[in-house]
């Protein structure tokens, strides 16, 4: 007796729970690998899975086993030249205790030093952003309801046929039928009983007129009973659907970068990685993330991604030009009531001296009140200049939504990023 | 007989074609008197196959990180192409569940059906070890029970607590079987019905054992007759507990560990029962694979002779079959121990040869087998042996010669290795004996038994490891001891015995003064 069963449509990922358990258990190890990977990764492929290795001894499941040593006998196949009594040097040289046996008959489970496996993209990002949190993540309440979601809201008496709630309609009809037919039925029963009583009487005593009357009454009642409709428009119930305004979960991220002559390609690479991390992070927190690239030297310009990272410009640096442009873009396209606004700025710290003051004014008075978070990374090994100092004053004013750090080399990016978005415990 | 048409050509399969092949195989299997459980053949995808692999051949398993690790390892190996998943996965249950992957070619599907659904299946049903130690009819139910029970425990006591308990049990699961006692079959309904009862009863029993107020009446019986100066009251006269060494560590823990909660005992029991289910498989690898390989080879050839299978399919089959039964020599980079498929297939084929066309040598070595009905003999061999005894009984000089087996002694007191036997007249018996013992569980795994539990003193547990040819325990002994300590709750000691003398002691927790023993293992 044989049955064939096609299980292909069944759920896969039966092991998902076990896989998750494994990842949880070796969180520490995996995190270390992920951290290394983030720093090593080329700029564009952050959103890929990652191969992770864990030393085998750390994840071994120990059992009682024979160790090396003692006297052991091995039977091996493929004898070519040995004859009985031959004496051989131990293979593998060294001659020590690690005589794993002829021909490398390896002790099972000791074969590999590293247990390697691949994290999926989601798992990888989970680890990358583990313990981080987006500050001021807000669901913007909307005044003008341009984002709505249909939700069920009880039942109504009228609506389109497609929304008829059959169960509820039938129940209504049933109730109505009981209510309407009850009195008629009762009258009918009484009439029939009266008729029967009348007919049981002695023929002499019968009242023919009464009988006719009762018969007519019964007939009338039966008609009325039949006239009670099985279902009436009055019974119909419709599922009610209303449009509910949705809190916005959109974010826009402004990448602001200095492209003046002093920013080398290496600087840009570092900036790009930082932007990328931030983008991936935002993407995990918001349903929709838009990117706006603003680059600047003495003048700012909104550009596409390609141009942002790879075109070369020279000239001086006026940071305020970029901030002004961001401000204008927000004004024109991203009303703060609907969008969560994030600005990430990367620069080497150069600026026209008296412009830094303008920057601070712009930030404090115009931008910061509208932004969710402003991050500034200064990519320079050198001492800070006027811009940093002015920004420090902004930070003092908006301590919870303004953050700035210095990055010297690519290896700093991830630690700095983690520091910027560290989950702030016990803070409102 | 070549008048029949091939059932199908090409490499695409469909359910109709598979059914036809299956019927054909079933017909032939019947002719060869293969007695099987009903087959439940499941077609699955690659991912599902990886899932199945990861749960070590259990169709439903409880959750544990080690299965996740297994899954990741399988997935990685498969992605890199180091491992073909195609071959087979078959579960010793009634009906016998076999998995066929949808990616397989038609030839592969037919091969797997012959191999798993008739080869392994008949082995599960016929072999005495499986008959004794497993209950194919109820295993799936039991697994369901185990999964539900453990999930319930996780809910009630937390995932971490259950996980640590399982870790500890897994470390001892190779020592969770009574090797010489026939177990009662397991059944899920029974389990569930009795589980509640058992919980209460078990705890009561343990309480009796560990009661701190001595019960004079029953303890007094044997004591009064003795007259001991040192111990006039006979407080130490009770003798060692347990009176006989116990080889089933998990059973001993389940019944005697002083501090385990009832649910923890039940989990220990589940791991023990599953270990028991896999126990026969560990001892019959060569036979089981050899048997299945022999039958897929025989059935495929027969179908080819009958014309049901065309030449293309047959060539594809032979290529695949050859790869499976290949035995690389010891000095080849591909060598990874003796291939159980190769050895088993060679031996079963050789038994058939001895029956059908015995040589002088065979008549001398196998007077009973030579010339007998090969089907009878093969079935006899399959039913009544395990790897160890099967090799001892049936490894013929011809197979030894074909595989060019030789015996090497590796003694750590000797600078050199010594070849003590090769495939010649003087060596056959020695090789056979040595190879047989290589498959004996008692040689493969350390012999460790519960020696005593100090129920009147510090409650420490002492195990004894009887060394085999001076072979010491691997360093994994420390982590295992730690797990054992978690289960027992009091200090555990382990003594290695060589010729009646204790040559090495291990204990956990580590003694604070002599750190020299400490391996620094975490």
TrEMBL record, chain A:
| Positions with biased composition (Gly residues) | 91-106
Region annotation (Disordered) maps to: 82-110
Q: Which InterPro entries match?
A: UPF0229 (IPR006698)
Which Pfam families has this protein been placed in? DUF444
Tell me which domain of life the UniProt entry assigns to the organism this sequence originates from.
Answer: Bacteria
Q: Which PANTHER family match?
A: UPF0229 PROTEIN YEAH
The similarity annotation says:
Belongs to the UPF0229 family.
This chain's protein is named UPF0229 protein SAMN05192556_102387
- Give the lineage: Bacteria, Pseudomonadati, Pseudomonadota, Gammaproteobacteria, Oceanospirillales
């Amino acid at each position: 007796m044989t049955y064939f069963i096609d299980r292909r449509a069944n759920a896969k990922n039966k092991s998902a729970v076990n896989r998750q358990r494994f990842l949880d258990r070796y969180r520490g190890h995996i995190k270390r690998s992920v951290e290394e990977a983030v720093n090593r990764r080329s700029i564009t492929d952050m959103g890929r899975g990652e191969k992770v290795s864990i030393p085998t001894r750390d994840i071994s499941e120990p059992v009682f086993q024979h160790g090396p040593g003692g006297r052991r006998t091995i039977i091996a196949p493929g004898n070519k030249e040995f004859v009985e009594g031959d004496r051989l040097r131990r293979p593998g040289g060294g001659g020590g205790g690690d005589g794993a046996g002829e021909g490398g008959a390896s002790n099972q489970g000791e074969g590999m030093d590293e247990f390697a496996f691949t994290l999926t993209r989601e798992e990888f990002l989970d680890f990358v952003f583990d313990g981080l949190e987006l500050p001021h993540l807000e669901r913007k309440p909307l005044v003008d309801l341009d984002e709505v979601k249909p939700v069920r809201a009880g039942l109504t008496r009228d609506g389109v046929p497609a929304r008829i709630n059959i169960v509820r309609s039938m129940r209504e009809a049933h109730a109505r039928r009981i209510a309407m037919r009850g009195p008629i039925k009762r009258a009918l029963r009484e009439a029939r009983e009266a008729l029967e009583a009348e007919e049981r009487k002695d023929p002499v005593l019968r009242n023919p007129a009464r009988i006719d009357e009762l018969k007519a009454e019964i007939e009338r009642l039966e008609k009325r009973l039949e006239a009670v409709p099985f279902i009436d428009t009055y019974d119909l119930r419709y599922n009610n659907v209303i449009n509910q305004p949705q809190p916005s979960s959109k974010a826009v991220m402004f990448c602001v970068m200095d492209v003046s002559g002093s920013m080398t390609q290496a600087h840009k690479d570092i900036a790009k990685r930082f932007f990328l991390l931030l983008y991936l992070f935002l993407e995990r927190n918001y349903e929709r993330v838009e990117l706006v690239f603003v680059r600047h030297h003495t003048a700012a310009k909104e550009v596409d991604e390609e141009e942002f990272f790879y075109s070369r410009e020279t000239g001086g640096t006026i940071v305020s030009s970029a901030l002004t442009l961001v401000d204008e873009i927000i004004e024109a396209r991203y009303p703060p009531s609907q969008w969560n606004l994030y600005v990430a700025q990367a620069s080497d710290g150069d600026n026209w001296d008296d412009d830094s003051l303008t920057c601070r004014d712009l930030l404090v008075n115009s931008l910061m009140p509208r932004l969710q978070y402003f991050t500034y990374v200064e990519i320079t090994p050198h001492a800070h200049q006027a811009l940093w100092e002015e920004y420090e004053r902004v930070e003092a004013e908006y301590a919870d939504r303004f953050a700035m750090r210095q990055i010297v080399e690519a290896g700093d990016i991830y630690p700095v990023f983690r520091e910027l978005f560290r989950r702030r415990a016990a803070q409102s | 007989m070549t008048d029949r048409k091939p059932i199908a050509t090409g490499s695409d399969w469909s359910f109709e074609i598979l059914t036809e092949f299956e019927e054909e195989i079933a017909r032939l299997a019947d002719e060869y008197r293969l007695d099987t459980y009903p087959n439940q053949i499941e077609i699955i995808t690659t991912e599902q196959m990886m899932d199945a692999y990861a749960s070590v051949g259990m169709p439903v398993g409880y959750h544990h990180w080690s299965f996740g690790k297994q899954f990741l390892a399988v997935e990685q190996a498969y992605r890199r192409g180091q491992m073909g998943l195609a071959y087979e996965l078959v579960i010793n249950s009634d009906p016998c569940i076999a998995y066929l992957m949808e990616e397989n070619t038609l030839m592969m599907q037919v091969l797997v059906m012959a191999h798993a659904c008739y080869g392994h299946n008949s082995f599960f049903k016929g072999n005495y070890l499986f008959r004794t130690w497993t209950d194919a009819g109820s295993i799936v139910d039991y697994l369901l029970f185990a999964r539900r029970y453990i999930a319930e425990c996780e809910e009630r006591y937390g995932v971490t607590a259950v996980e640590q308990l399982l870790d500890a049990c897994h470390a001892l699961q190779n020592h969770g079987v009574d090797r010489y006692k026939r177990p009662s079959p397991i059944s899920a309904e029974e389990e569930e019905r009795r589980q509640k009862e058992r919980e209460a009863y078990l705890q009561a029993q343990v309480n009796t054992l560990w009661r701190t107020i001595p019960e004079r009446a029953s303890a007094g019986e044997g004591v009064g007759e003795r007259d001991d100066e040192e111990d006039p009251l006979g407080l130490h006269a009770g003798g060692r507990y347990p009176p006989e060494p116990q080889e089933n560590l998990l059973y001993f823990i389940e019944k005697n560990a002083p501090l385990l909660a009832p649910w923890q005992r039940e989990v220990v029991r589940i791991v023990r029962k599953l270990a028991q289910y896999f126990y026969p498989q560990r001892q019959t690898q060569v036979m089981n694979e050899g048997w299945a390989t022999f039958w897929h080879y025989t059935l495929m050839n027969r179908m080819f002779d009958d014309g049901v299978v065309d030449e293309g399919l047959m060539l594809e089959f032979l290529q695949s079959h050859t790869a499976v039964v290949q035995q690389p020599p010891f000095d080849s980079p591909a060598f990874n121990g003796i291939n159980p498929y190769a050895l088993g297939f060679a031996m079963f084929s050789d038994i058939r040869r001895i029956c059908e066309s015995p040589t002088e040598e065979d008549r001398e070595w196998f007077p009973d087998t030579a010339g007998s009905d090969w089907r009878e003999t093969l079935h006899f061999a399959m039913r009544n042996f395990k790897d160890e005894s099967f090799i001892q009984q049936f490894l013929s000089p011809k197979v030894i010669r074909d595989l060019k087996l030789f015996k090497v002694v590796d003694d750590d007191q000797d600078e050199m290795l010594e070849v003590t036997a090769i495939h010649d007249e003087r060596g056959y018996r020695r090789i056979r004996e040595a190879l047989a013992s290589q498959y004996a569980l008692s040689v493969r795994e350390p012999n460790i038994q519960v020696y005593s539990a100090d129920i009147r003193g510090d409650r420490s547990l002492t195990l004894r490891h009887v060394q085999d040819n001076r072979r010491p325990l691997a360093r994994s002994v420390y982590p295992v001891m730690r797990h054992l300590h978690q289960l027992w709750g009091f200090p555990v000691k382990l003594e290695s015995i060589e010729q009646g003398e204790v040559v090495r002691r291990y204990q956990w927790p580590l003694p604070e003064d002599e750190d020299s023993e400490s391996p620094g293992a975490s």
